Amino acid sequence: MGKLGLSGLIRRCYFVEDPRLEREVFGLKFKNPVGLAAGFDKNAELYNELSDFGFGFVEIGTLTPRAQDGNPKKRLFRLKADQAIINRMGFNNKGVDAAVERLKKRHRVLIGGNIGKNKVTPNRDATSDYLLCFRALFTHVDYFVVNVSSPNTPGLRELQEKEPLTALLKALQEENSTLAGKYEVKRKPILLKIAPDLSNDQLLDIIDIVRGTVLDGVIATNTTIGREHLNSSPELTGQAGGLSGKPLRERSTEVIRFLHEKGKGDFPIIGVGGIHSPDDALEKLEAGASLVQLWTGFVYEGPVLVRQINRALLIKEAQSAQ
User: Is the pTM of this model over 0.85?
Assistant: First the structure.
C-alpha cells in the first residue's frame, strides 16, 4: 500500500469531518477544535501524517534559533500509576531553519509554531532569539505560540514576570506588523503559553499583559513542577522536570476558568492538560476554552481519543439543537 493509500485509510478510521465541528478562532478556521500540542512534532517532520489521526491543528516545536541537544538522557519518564509523564527534554530540536525547510511542503492542517530561546542565551538577550524564530517561521505557520513556561530551560520561567514578558510580546507584535506589511498579508495570531503554577495574582498580570499587548490568546497550561497526590514510586515522582497527564487536569481547568471569567471572555484560550477522555475535553471547553490540545492523553489513549472527542462534541451539538 502506497503512502497516500495508507494516509487515506488512517483518515477513514480516525478523522471525523462535519461542519458542526468547525471553529473560527483568532481569525483562523479550524476543521475541529482538537489539536496536537507542541512537543510531539518538535522538528516539523510529521505534521501531515499526524493530522490524519483527526487533529484540527498541529503545533510544532518548541523551536529555537540554533539546534540543541536538550538535557542529558534519560529525560522522559512514564508514570503509569498516575497516567502521567515527567519530561525534562530541554527544547531539544534541530533548529528553526531545518524546520522551515520541512514546512515548505503542502500542509493538510493548520500549523502552529511554538518558539523559545536557546539554553545558552541569557534572558537579557531572549527577545532576539524569539524574534529570529518569528521571522524565519512567519510565512510558514498559521499562528505562533510564545513559550516562556517550560520548566526545563534554566531561568526561562522568569520571563513570565510582567516587565520582561510585556517587553518581549511588544517586540513580537511590532515585528508582526512589519512582516505583515512586507509580505502583504494579515498579521499572524500570537498566543502565550503559561504555566499551571502561577498564582491568581500572576494570572491577573497575564490578563493585563494580554490586553496591553493586544495578544490573540493564551494556551493554558504547560507542564507543572508540582508533585501532589501521585501514586507512582518516589523513584519516578522525584524526577526533575515538568509533569503532564491526568494529575494536571483539575489545575489546568481551574486556570482556564479563572482566565475566562476574570478576562471576561476577551481573548480565546486553548485548553491543554490532562485530557484523557471526551469528558475531560468537554470540561475544558465548558470552563471557557475555545479549542483543546492533547499530548499525554494521546500517548496513553492513542489516536482513537481524537475521534471520541469529536464524536462527543457532535452528540452534544445534536442534543443542544433539540
Answer: yes
The answer to whether the annotation marks 213 as part of a ligand binding site is no
Rounded Cα–Cα distance for residues 61 and 269 (Å)? 19
Interval 210-247: pLDDT, tens: 999 999 999 999 999 999 999 999 999 999 999 999 99
Annotated binding-site residue? 93: no
Distance between CA atoms of residues 61 and 78, nearest Å? 21
The C-alpha cell of 117 is what?
530561546
The verdict on whether omega for the bond into residue 193 sits within 30 degrees of 0, i.e. cis, is no
- The DSSP letter of residue 106 is P
Task: Determine contact, residues 278/309, Cβ cutoff 8 Å.
Answer: yes
Which among 150, 232, 244, 252 is annotated as catalytic? 150
Question: Is 265 flagged in the annotation as binding?
Answer: no
Which CA distances in Å does 123 have to 61, 120, 148, 202, 230? Answer: 20, 9, 11, 19, 33
- Strand 84-87, strand 57-63: pairing: unpaired
Domains and CATH numbers, the chain: 19-321 (3.20.20.70)
- Tell me phi and psi for residue 258, to 5 degrees: -60, -50
Please indicate whether residue 150 is annotated as part of the active site: yes
Task: Provide the 3-class DSSP secondary structure of residue 75.
Answer: coil
| Arithmetic mean of pLDDT over the chain | 96
Q: Find out whether 186 is annotated in a ligand binding site.
A: no
